[in-house]
Amino acid sequence: MPSFSPDFQPLQEQIARLSPDRYDDIVFRHPMSFYRDRVEMAGAQNFHKALDAGHGFGQWSIALAERNGHVTGVDHNKPRCEISLMLKEHFGIANLDVAVAPLSTLDQMFTPKSFDYIWCWGVIMFVDRARVMRIFNNLLVEGGVLFLGSVNTPERWAYKIGLARSQGTGNDNFFRTCEKGVNGLFNETGVNAFSRDKDVSQRIVDPYGFNILDIDYDGRIDKVAKRVLPFEQIANIRDENVEMILEKRTDVELLVS
What we know:
The chain has helices at 12-18, 24-27, 32-41, 59-65, 78-90, 106-109, 129-139, 154-167, 172-182, 198-205, and strands spanning 49-53, 70-75, 96-100, 115-121, 140-150, 210-217, 242-248. The protein is an alpha/beta fold. The chain has one domain (9-248): Vaccinia Virus protein VP39 (Rossmann fold, 3-Layer(aba) Sandwich), CATH 3.40.50. Helix 3 (32-41) packs across helix 4 and helix 8 runs antiparallel to helix 9 (172-182). The protein starts with 11 loop residues before the first helix and ends in a 9-residue tail after the last strand.
């Protein structure tokens, strides 16, 4: 089993009690500097109000809060929100709020144009993309920025299954979701995936009022220096997650349905 980075080891026992699927072993093997570097690489800094949508354990929220005016982290999983609050205290972060809620209800929590930046890493493929992407559009100011990280291929889903089984992580719901991903690509509801091909993914995000500013495989978008910093080492790069930076268009007014 991967061990926690020293940055997180003081919290390891508390985190383990709140994370029965053991995915924390994968997330916290990276030092906090990894998440800070990735946020900087994505250009996710110097924004006034940022939303970490589906923040998981909150490690991205910490890195975002260190570089932006104020961050709100939202996740449907209460134990993970508790871990996020532990990280907030551990790293002495004052400008971070944490809320328990599904992404499909964000439009009920916040008024339109509440944020100038939204970070959503490793979550969009688990939700109703049509509804959530429209919500993201409405929550962003004109010209606001959305960062998405998404599973790319059926082979990537298969890799996630194999990794989880080998490391004793995951649960029944996780495996069911992964199996759906193995069996389908570019599904408009439920499990879905994007393509590194900019034209293909632009057609996917176009109905939701976004333009793609940058797109590449996991850990390869870098606005500050030429680096490659993937979350995991994947043998076939085409099976990597796809990440993209999107800008809200000013010529589209969307209704959330």
